[in-house]
TrEMBL record:
Organism: Actinomycetospora chlora
Renumbered residue ranges of the record's region Disordered: 22-42
Protein name (Swiss-Prot/TrEMBL): Uncharacterized protein
Compositional bias ranges of the Basic and acidic residues kind: 22-39
Amino acid sequence: MTVALDPDISSILVTLRRDGAGGTMTEERWTPPEPRRAEPWLPGTRRGWVRALGQVSGLLLALRTEEADGATPPDPLADGLALRAWSSLTGPVLRDLARPTVPEVDIVDLALVGAAARVLGTSLCRWRAGAPADVVTAVLRREAAVHGCSPEHLVAQVARVQGVLSAADELSGAQVWWALDDGDPSTPARDVTPALRD
């Protein structure tokens, strides 16, 4: 038996040689099936994504409300810029009721959400170091009380979602998701390799 690849590698020519009476030779062309590509997936449960997206959306809406009442949050939190980027980036995640869906990501929206996480974290760190609370810290503290969590948790949720959506691959995204896990007891076991099982 001899095997030869076609130059375009779309099929393989297999030549079978039978020795003995008649010395027949047959050729068969075998075309390999298309490789099965796993659909992109997001780590975590739908419940975990709903919680994360809801907490951050509430935070950004509260900052926008403060701005409408006359406060001046720093960029990119001002003028609803971070809120619009967040909505654009995360809106498609929960459209499929069966599971969280990987959205088409706009790099500008990713950058704005990342910058918002840095601004939120910086404001909170200054307050924790003894500086007076600014509008960002005041809103973070109020929203954290609403959700029964720490202000740091809300900042981590922004970073968590941005990190997952900007990850180079599913495994990296899963590592980010679980690294910032909030310890919800209803969260199933942390199997970060569903693509490897297929």
